[in-house]
């Protein structure tokens, strides 16, 4: 279908029995999509799982001339992260800190590469409620603390066309 015929939010353009992603996450990508509030406002980050965080940082430093703007250990998830700013979003480099972490299991099964995509939402609770209300599988039943002082929840890839989705609510005051 030609690009100009694919209006954002148009269920007809998406085919029979299909809805735009904004419907499931609870928000509109464009102002003209009526009735859907509080959904993804931006791409927050693309997460890349790596075995060696320092080597990945050095790759981005030498190849693209960029430096991490934030580093954090997330004990609950068993990962170290480095964030590299790209416009209003991030590349999130992740490496496991323990063998039982989800990222360690991902690396063992699939190797290095894209792990998940994070969508910025106004209210993580509202977006998660909408996903659950539509009957989709989630990993987090309730929002939880994330890095940078964010509130996050994960949507299971089996209900999201094979993509692990993180819903990310920015803190009300900068972290």
Index terms:
single chain, 175 residues, alpha+beta, 2,3-Dihydroxybiphenyl 1,2-Dioxygenase, domain 1, 5 helices, 8 strands, 23% helix, 30% strand, globular
Structure, explained:
This protein is of the alpha+beta class. It has a single domain, classed as Roll (2,3-Dihydroxybiphenyl 1,2-Dioxygenase, domain 1). The chain is 23% helix and 30% strand. It is built from five helices and eight strands. Strands 2-3-4-1-5-8-7-6 form an eight-stranded mixed sheet. β6 and β7 form a beta hairpin. It is globular, with a radius of gyration of 17 Å. The N terminus is likely disordered.
Tell me the layout of helices and strands.
Layout: H1 11-14, H2 21-25, E1 40-49, H3 53-64, E2 70-74, E3 79-86, E4 89-96, H4 102-110, E5 113-121, H5 124-133, E6 144-145, E7 151-155, E8 165-169
Parallel strand pairs: 1-4, 5-8
Antiparallel strand pairs: 1-5, 2-3, 3-4, 6-7, 7-8
Radius of gyration: 17 Å
CATH topology tier name: 2,3-Dihydroxybiphenyl 1,2-Dioxygenase, domain 1
As laid out across the biggest beta sheet, the strand order is 2-3-4-1-5-8-7-6
CATH class: Alpha Beta
Identify the CATH architecture.
Roll
What's this entry about, in short?
With about 180 residues, this protein is of the alpha+beta class. The chain contains 5 helices and 8 strands; from the N terminus they run ααβαβββαβαβββ.
